[in-house]
Structure formats: C-alpha cells, structure tokens
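Below is one such protein, fold included:
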Amino acid sequence: MPVLVAACVLATLAWVYLLVAHGGYWRTDCRLPVGSRRAEPGPGDWPSVVAVIPARDEAAILPETLPSLLGQEYPGELSVVLVDDGSSDGTAAIAESLEQIPGVALKVLRGEPLAAGWAGKVWAMAQGVAAAGECDYLLFTDADIAFGPGAVGALARAAVTDDRALVSQMALLRADTGWEKWIVPAFVYFFAQLYPFRRIGRPGARTAAAAGGCMLVRRTVLAAAGGLDRIKDARIDDIALARLLKRPPVAARCWLGFTTHVRSQRPYPRFAELWGMVARSAYTQLRYSPGLLVAVLAGLAWLYLLPPVAGLAGLAALAAGAGPGPGTVAVWCAAAGLTGWFLQAVTYLPVLRLYQLSWLRAVGLPLAALLYAGMTGDSALRYHAGRGGAWKGRTIPL
C-alpha cells in the first residue's frame, strides 16, 4: 500500500505539471487570427491558393464536402485539384459532376499507380502539387473536410499577416454517435497533449505537428525544404510535413490551432471503425519501437488509471473501518488518487466544451485512456502481423 501511495502522489504531481507547465495543451482557445507582424493584404494583393485533395474511394462523401470548398468567396485566386488515388467507386466521376458549381475552378486528376517507396496519400499529394503549378500557397486537405464560409480567407490572412509558412487547423471531427462521443474528443485531447499547440506556434520551439485535414503551406518554403519527396514514405504525413518545415534549412514559422469552421463529415458509426482509425497509425507514431510501446502503455496506466483506482481503493478501505496505521495510508491513497483524478478531469473539460458534450464525461477520461491503450497495443500486433497501415484496401508496406 505505501508503494501505491507513493506512485499515486507522483502521478498527481505529474498532473500538476501537465496542468500548469505543459504548454497549456488542454486549452482550446488557440484560434485564428494568430498575430499581426504584417499588414493585411489589400484588394488585388491576396495570395493565390490551390487546394490539393487526395481522394481514394470518396464518392459517397464528396457531395457533402467539396461544394463547401468550391463555394468559398476568397478575395484572391483560388482553385482546387482533386487527385483520384486509384478509386474503385467512381470518385472522379462524382467530383467532375460537381465541377459545374459556380465559383472556384476544379481540376480532377486521375492519379498514377503508386510509385515505389511512396506512401499512398503522399504520392497523391505530390501529384496534386505538380498539377497546381505556380501559386503562393498550397492548401492540403482531405475529401471528408467541409469548410465554413470565409475559412480559406482566414487561413491566408493568418499566414500573410503573421508570416507563417504553415497554418494548420484541427478540423472538428464528428462526435454524434455514442462511441464517437467517447473516442473522438479523447483523440483530440491526447493529440494536443503529445503536441501542445502553443509550443508549435512558438518560434524556435522543437515541437512540430499539423492536422492533415487543413494545412496551408507556402509553396516556395516547401520547395526550399526539399518538397514532398523528403517525406515520400511518411505514414503520418501531417506530422512529417510539419517536422520537415520546422527543421533546417528552412526552420519555418508554423502554427496549429483549433476551429469550429473546418469540420470533418466522415462518420464512424461502428466501434470497430473508430478502433481501426487509431490502431492504423498508433504504432507508427511510436516509430515501431517495442520499448516505446511498453513505456506508453505503462505511462497511460500510471497517469490515467492509477489515480481513480487508488482513490476508490482508499475510500473503500476507509469505509471498511481500516485501523490507525492502515487508515492513515488509506487517507493518503484516497486523497492523492482523487486529486489526480480531479486534475485530469479538469484538463479534459475544454475539449468536451469544444464538442458540446456534458462535463460529466470528464470523469470517464481514464476509461478512454484504457481504450486507447488497447488500440495502441493492437496497432503493434497489426504491424507484426504484416497488416499495419491498412486503409481502403491498401496495406502500406512496412
């Protein structure tokens, strides 16, 4: 029991650190606009933007999302390149049927077969970049992403006025079904804990990340960094792209924040689909390291599961009438455990508010952590079974 108390006290102290000194990762007020180092573009001075959409078997969702991008009232030149990445469901034909929507120009490109050494999505992105030609910014987005009115203009304004080579927004994911409400906000929370958004935006900070559904990138900076060829085998393209841009020789200024104006329309009606979404790349994030896997699973258990277990065990011991010695230990166990549980719940509240979910769900964060531990372990098992990175009928060779 004393060992349990000591471990729980340390976990609680860790939560104090995470709350006050870990880049404010739990806050969701990191939003556009990001700053004003330069004047806003005047009429005729807005940068040209080409949106690049890699799409594989997305015929069902494109009618919900593509019109939101084609209908953007952007003050400058805006066009869209959609790359059909070997679809079998008529994705290109559906996209072309939407080409008649008045507004932004759309080019539909039938993608070339996957080149050796390339990850599928990055290969499609590279073809889109080549088709985009000369432009000021590239907007990398996904087929399931819907843009609110003025969203592209807000991105470009932030990039120009604050001199950012990368401006990315974490799209608001769907959280409508019961399992989505449990897993999706936790996914966003854990992502922000791993990559605190404020540190990403701090010049000179080593933390680098982006959200693949919405990444506005200055084309010349991407070229100076070596282009997408430098990350051609990346399984997690957004993190790889952000790291490429933040390191020398370009050491670009980057930014990542939250938004409610860019939304993912992709549904995950079944628990297995949500599980697969995380398990597909979790072990990749750990660089396929068994040592890191053990460390992460142990860390999740220590930080998220130990406090509520210890707190409830201490309360149970006190309720059972523990004697003076055991009673003191039980008091410490209950106090440390419940305090740690309370602190982690507090850090989860802003994400729950972002998704308009009840604050009562905050006490269930340890259960969400348990699910993510299972997904991460399953991701490792898939990798060692040769099924890692499977996506829409394509298994990425590892």
Remarks:
- The two ends are 44 Å apart (CA to CA).
